């Protein structure tokens, strides 16, 4: 059974750095074609893709946020960590992690965590 | 920038059929798979169509997907509408420069 769970602070201040952890089970990020991605959703708005890390440790970032994002994995611990620097109120959103299975962008986001709400406010 | 455009909202009556479109801004939408997600309020998205027209196990066959290269668009069709289908629906695809892209979402109202 595949599960993912996001964890991190609910409230952060502007200019601070946000660190989110995705803990997953039921699959291995070492398996060929496997990836974990982060997606966020501001209140009342659409889904926005942020970053993805694949089984080879290749990393991909949203072009609009790539200077502020870092994604990493701890395969042995089944964790994927996302950091977002220099936070601003516009980063207030629910952050989801999801599994992506498939190569070269072909895969779908087939399993999702329940999401974690993050508010950026002083 | 590669953008997927969806209608903001659609509505239809129970038992009827509705189609939600997803139009690519450039290139050919047929070059990469389109996937569709359903999101109910306060919940995480779930996949309802993958690889243009494939249904995951557990998704009713009332849900179907298609690609129309002539209009550079993908469509999600839901037949025999039920009140439980009321949700936001997102299309998603891949672009070599933008990577993974979601559409703006469509709110389906079943009334």
Describe the structure.
The complex is a heterodimer of chains A (122) and B (111). Chain A is mostly beta strands. Chain A has strands spanning 3-7, 11-12, 18-25, 34-41, 48-54, 59-61, 69-74, 79-84, 93-101, 108-112, 116-120. Chain A has no helices and eleven strands. In chain A, strands 2, 4, 5, 6, 9, 10 and 11 form a seven-stranded mixed beta sheet that branches. Chain A is globular. The model of chain A has no long low-confidence stretch (mean pLDDT 95). Chain B is mostly beta strands. In chain B, 0% of the residues lie in helices and 47% in strands. Chain B contains no helices and ten strands. In chain B, the strands form two sheets. In chain B, strands 2, 4, 5, 8, 9 and 10 form a six-stranded mixed beta sheet that branches. The N and C termini of chain B lie far apart (36 Å). The interface between A and B is medium-sized, with 22 and 27 residues.
| Assembly state | heterodimer
Greatest chain-chain contact: A-B, 22 and 27 residues
Could you describe the largest sheet of chain B, including whether it forms a barrel?
Answer: 6 strands, mixed
Overall mean pLDDT of chain A: 95
Q: What's the order of the H and E elements of chain A?
A: EEEEEEEEEEE
Pairing-aware structural class of the strands and helices of chain A? Answer: mainly beta
Span between termini of chain B:
36 Å
């Amino acid at each position: 059974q595949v599960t993912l769970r996001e964890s991190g602070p609910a409230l952060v201040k502007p200019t601070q750095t946000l660190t989110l952890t995705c803990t997953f089970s039921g699959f291995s990020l070492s398996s060929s074609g496997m990836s974990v991605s982060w997606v966020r959703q501001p209140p009342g708005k659409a889904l926005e893709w942020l970053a993805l890390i694949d089984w080879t440790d290749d990393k991909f970032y949203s072009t609009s946020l790539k200077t502020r994002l870092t994604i990493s994995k701890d395969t042995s611990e089944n964790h994927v960590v996302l950091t977002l620097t220099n936070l601003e109120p516009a980063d207030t959103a629910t952050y989801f992690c999801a599994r992506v299975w498939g190569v070269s962008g072909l895969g779908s986001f087939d399993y999702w965590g329940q999401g974690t709400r993050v508010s950026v406010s002083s | 920038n590669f953008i997927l455009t969806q209608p903001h909202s659609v509505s239809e009556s129970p038992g009827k059929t509705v189609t939600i479109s997803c139009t690519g801004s450039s290139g050919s939408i047929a070059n990469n798979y389109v996937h569709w997600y359903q999101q109910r309020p306060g919940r995480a998205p779930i996949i309802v169509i993958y690889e243009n027209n494939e249904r995951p196990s557990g998704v009713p066959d009332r849900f179907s997907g298609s690609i129309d290269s002539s209009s550079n668009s993908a469509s999600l069709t839901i037949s025999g509408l039920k009140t439980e289908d009321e949700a936001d629906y997102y299309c998603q695809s891949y672009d070599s420069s933008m990577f993974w892209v979601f559409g703006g979402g469509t709110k389906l109202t079943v009334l």
